[in-house]
Amino acid sequence: MVLQAALEAGMDIPHYCYHPSLSVVASCRLCLMEMKVPDPKSGELVWMPKLVPSCQTPVKEGMEVRFNSPAVQQNQQQCMEYFLLNHPLDCPVCDQAGECYLQDYSYRFGQPTSRMVEEKLKNPKKDVGPRTLLYQDRCVMCSRCVRFTDEIAGTHELTVVNRGNRAEIDVFPGLPLNNPLQGNVVDLCPVGSLLDKDFLFKQRVWLLRETKSICPGCSTGCAIRIDHNEGVIYRLKPRFSPKVNDYWMCDEGRFGWKYLQDGDRLTRPVVRRGGEVFYPRWEDIPEIINYRLRKLAEQQTPTAVVLSPMLACEEAWLIASYVRALLPQAVLVASWLPVQGAEQNFPVGSPAEKARFTIRPEKCPNRRGVELLINKLGGASSTLEDLIKQVKEKKIKAAWITGGYSQRDWVSKELAAAAKELELLVMQDLYANALTDNSHVLLPSCCWAEREGSFVNQAGLIQPFERAVDGPEGTRRDGQYLYEIAGYSGLYRAEKVRERMAEQLAEFRDIYVAPDPPEHQH
Amino acid sequence: MSWKAYDRNQPVMDPQAPPVLTEAVREKIRSFFPRYETKRAVLLPALHIVQELLGYVSYQAMKEIADLLEIHASDVLDVVSFYTHFANHPKGRKTVMVCRSLSCELMGGKAVLEAVKNTLQIQEHGTSTDGQYFLVTEECLAECDHAPCLKINERTYHQVKATDVSRILADEKNAELSIARSSLFDPPGH
């Protein structure tokens, strides 16, 4: 389509209803352009008197179009006047202000004053679902949200009721917008009509800083953006990633990050020695760990390293290669896998190969990454069940266990009982549990938004993510202290570590970074 | 929350209420299925049948039609609210449509409308107290050569004078057509 081509060429063509992943309706009329067509008499190409929607016109060889003519500009101005006829102009209390395309286009094409002298139509606010509010006043009837529920989610909750200037977006009373992808309609809304109850009145958007990240909610590994301000995360938004999540993300990921701001996180390292408890400084941790592990090596104690699927590849590699350097016989173990529910494909009811979005039952971001590392590093490996048996049979006497799950009850009774038999337990986790309480060295973890690294998703794409915020006071990023434990000095940069990994493991040379969509596309 | 918002999470109909569409009506709707490629296409015939049966299409009926056609209830609401022909609230058995377009207006349409309002003691979009009449104005009834005109259900009255109105409305059989009406969309038992 001409509009997409123009956007990809960097032109800022105004549009509301067009979205590259939804069907084209050409209803907003903002993207109209002039086009040359053959004259019926002479056959030569002349400018067509009527404007045509660029979102609906396919690009052809030798085509001539223009967006900068007076007719096109006049149309844009007139359209904006219509869109703003009944708009309540409540930007000061509107969540969308700052990222609103009514504001942007009004600034570019709108008139400073309204010529409307009649009373504005006042439409009600509607509570259309458990997570979403609809401010009908602000709506421009682009119907993106309706097409999303029809075409991507396949749940059809939203619809257009009434007609003409009285048209409204609504749901059937009693059948609210309640599907696992509903947060996306808020992202799709080019104006402040559909609002997220979770983010409502929390923060002005121009104060937010954006960090590119990867959702840790399931093994799909959606590309996301963390919006945060002064160390507090306010919301997650999907990023365009054609190979993974297109433009969407699920509500589980979008709203499932709240655990990391709960306030009962582990914040300082602990050393337990013969019933005594010490709280060492972070600076002393590398020496303590080194001393303990060298002792294990001297006594040739059989040791296991349990790698959590919540770890980034770089962190898992730092632990595994460090322990293996001291204890070449160390057993590598993939940790507990959080699995919940079944695979959900969208549109609802479509088979997996036709699905446009999938929520996967494996609720961790990096199972494949950890398994890849364990395979590529070679040597002894085992499963968590076997490890528990081996510990009970005294075949394994020391372990370094990593957690970092959002599920606080991830430690099974068997694992907790087995851990008590260990001579040395080095533990990394977010929250206190049976293992952290019995560990000899406890290293508090940071969650994914507070770290940097890369996750390998279910399709095998290695996707890097950046750090958005700092962990709670007292914590250090896992990468940083692992880097220091492994004997490096200076600041931990995931990219540098990845380069070092790639020297050993060729798989980590190809990382997948989603391309940025055209600047003016929205 | 400190402002008023319509709550769309709560159903407006009683979930325990018995179905409004009888098996005979459902069968009539199903008889349209072979005519079209999809069941969705039967929506308009189904709405005609239900409106003929109940006088309007209630939310309960919309939900039942949606279940019958295997579409979402919101799609039915979309169509019902789009066409002014369909009402989603109870209204009089007969609809009086008065033209408010140019030709009728010039020929005294306004007086006719006033006469209807006075006779039935109702306003536009109102239903008379006996539940017989429902009054709307229409943009054009396509009878400009016989202006002013009004329509009661499907029967059109030409060159209506304001003084004729009370006589027309008093007639019991004022909605009956001179030719036989197609019974295609009549619900069973009508």
Question: How would you summarize this macromolecular structure in one to three sentences?
Answer:
The complex is a heterodimer of chains A (about 525) and B (about 190). Chain A is α+β, with helices and mostly antiparallel strands. Helix content of chain A is about 25%, strand content about 20%.
- Secondary structure category of chain A: alpha+beta
Provide the gyration radius of chain A in Å: 28 Å
Instruction: Write the CATH architecture name of the largest domain in chain B.
Output: 3-Layer(aba) Sandwich
CATH fold-level name of the largest domain in chain B: Glutaredoxin
Low-pLDDT segments, ≥5 res of chain A: none
What does this structure look like?
The complex is a heterodimer of chains A (522) and B (190). With 522 residues, chain A is an alpha+beta fold. In chain A, 24% of the residues lie in helices and 19% in strands. Chain A has helices spanning 2-8, 70-83, 101-109, 144-151, 183-188, 251-255, 285-298, 313-326, 367-377, 384-392, 413-419, 434-437, 478-485, 494-504, and strands at residues 32-38, 45-47, 52-53, 65-66, 125-127, 132-135, 158-161, 168-171, 194-196, 209-214, 223-229, 232-238, 270-273, 276-278, 303-307, 331-334, 344-346, 357-359, 381-382, 398-402, 424-429, 441-444, 453-456, 462-465. The two termini of chain A are 15 Å apart. Chain B has 190 residues and is of the alpha+beta class. Chain B folds into 2 domains: 23-82, Arc Repressor Mutant, subunit A; 94-170, 3-Layer(aba) Sandwich (Glutaredoxin), CATH 3.40.30. In chain B, a hairpin with a 2-residue loop joins strand 4 and strand 5. In chain B, helix 2 (43-54) runs antiparallel to helix 3 and helix 3 crosses helix 4. The N and C termini of chain B lie far apart (50 Å). Chains A and B meet through strand 5 and strand 7 of A and strand 1, helix 3 and helix 4 of B.
